[in-house]
Amino acid sequence: MKKVYLLFFALISISAFSQKKFDNIKSVKLGEERRITIGLPASYEANPEKKYPVLYLLDGDYLFDPFSGAVSYGVYWDDLPEMIIIGVHQNKDGERFDDSTIDQSNGLPFEKGAQFFEFIGAELVPYIEKKYRTTPFRIIAGHDITASFINFYLYKETPLFNAYICLSPELAPKMEIRIPEKFAKIKEPFFYYLSAADGDIKRIKEPIEKLDSNIKIANNPLVNYKYDLFKGTTHYTEVLHSIPSALYQIFEVYKPINSAEYNDKIAVLQTGYADYLENKYATMSKVMGVKIPVRMSDFKVIENIILKNKAYDELGKMAEIGNVNYPKAMLGEYELGLMYEKLGDPKRASKKYQNASQMEPIGDLNKDLMYEKMDQMNTLAKTGK
Predict the structure, then answer these.
(1) CB-hemisphere CA count at 13 Å for 289?
(2) Separation between Cα atoms, residue 39 and residue 69, nearest integer Å
(3) In the chain, what are the domains?
(4) SS3 state of residue 54
C-alpha cells in the first residue's frame, strides 16, 4: 500500500510540477555543495507576475514526491494554492543525522547541526527568494529528527517560517517546553502541524504527547494548531496520512466555501455575510500572500444567504466586492440592481440593470437576463407595485 500511495503521488506531481529540476548550492556555511530538488508550478512561466508560497522540505529525498503529489491533487480541485516546493537532499553518508546534530546538554544545534541551521536560514532561503517569484509565506516540513530540527527556527525572536509541519518528530531536549513558551508570545497568525503514529516507539511518542498537551495549555488564538495521532500506522506510514492533513489545515481559508464552512461559520452569523467573504480573501492575501479573485461560487453562496435572511443592505457591500474583483463585469451593477429591487425601488433597480447590460457577462449573468430584469422593473414602476 505504501508503494501504491507513493506511485500515485509521483504520477500526479509530474503534471503539476512539470518544471521539477535539480540545483547545487555552494554553501559557505557547510563548506560544500548541497543538492536540492525544485518543483515549480505548471503556471510559473505562463504567469510572469504571479508569486507563490514556498514549501521547504528537509529529507527532500523521500518527502518531495509525496508532498508534490498531495499539492498537485489539492491544486487540481482548487483546495490548495500553487506553490514552489524545495527539497533538501540529505541521504548520503548519514547526512541527515549530521545535519541534525545537537548539544544534548542544552538541546540546541551543535557543530554540523549549527552549520546546517545557518545554511537553511542564511543561504538557502535567500537564494530561493532571489531566484524565484515568492510570497513572504514560508512553510517547512521534516520527519523524525529533521521534524525536530525545524523547530529551532521557532526559537528565534522572529520565526523564519510561517508554518511548520512536524511528522513524528524525535524531539530535542526541552523542546516540549520551549515551543509552547514561544507560542504564548506569538503576535502574528502562525501555523503548526504535529503528528505521530500509534506505532511510534515510546521514546518518540511520549515527548510528542507532552508537547501537544503544553501547546493546548498555551492556547494562543493566533496559533493555528493541529495534532493528529494516526491509528494502525508506523513511524513511516503515518507520513502519507499526515501530508494532506497538514496542507489542508494550513490552507483551510483558501478552499472554496464548502458545507462545513457554511454551516459552522456562515449560517451562524446574524449579519456581516459580505464582510465574511471579504475577510476570507483578505486573509489569503495578507497572511499567505495568495491573491486570487473572489470565486463566483463563493460569491453566490454569500449572495444566497443574504437573500434568504433578507439582509438586502449587504448587497451594496457585495457590489463593492464585485467591482474590486471584476471591474469590467456586470456583477457589481447587478448586485446594486438586486438590492434596489428587494428594497422596493424598481426605478433605481432598472437603471442599475441597464448599466450592467453594457458590461461584460460573468457566471450566469448576461445581457438577456439584464434586459429581462429591466422589463420586470419597468412594469413594476408603472403599476406602482
Answers:
(1) 15
(2) 11
(3) 2-254 (3.40.50.1820), 259-383 (1.25.40.10)
(4) strand
Which DSSP string corresponds to 222-251?
TEEEEEEEETT--TTTHHHHHHHHHHHHHT
Sequential DSSP letters for 282-341: HHHHHHH----PPPHHHHHHHHHHHHHTT-TTHHHHHHHHHHHH-TTBSHHHHHHHHHHH
Q: What is the pLDDT of residues 59-79, one digit of tens each?
A: 999 999 999 999 999 999 999
Phi–psi pair at 262, nearest 5 degrees: -60, -50
Return the SS3 of 52: strand
DSSP state of 161: -
pLDDT digits (tens, 9 = 90+) for 208-241: 999 999 999 998 999 999 999 999 999 999 999 9
Give the closest residue to 160 by CA, choosing from 113, 211, 122: 122
Angle, CA of 233, 252 and 127, to the nearest 5°:
85
Rounded Cα–Cα distance for residues 130 and 293 (Å): 27
- The three grid cell numbers given for residue 303, joined into one nine-digit string: 449572495
Contacts of 224 (CB under 8 A, 6+ apart): 189, 190, 191, 192, 249, 250, 252
Please give the span between the terminal C-alpha atoms of the chain, in angstroms, as a whole number: 67
Give the Cα separation of 304 and 77 in Å (integer).
23
pTM of the full structure:
0.91
As a dihedral over the C-alpha atoms of residue 324, residue 326, residue 328, residue 332, rounded to 10 degrees, the angle is -70
List, in sequence order, the alpha helices (H) in 77-200: 95-99, 112-118, 125-131, 145-149, 175-183
The pair phi, psi for residue 26, each rounded to 5°, is: -80, 115
Residue 40 has a CB neighbour count (10 Å cut-off) of 20
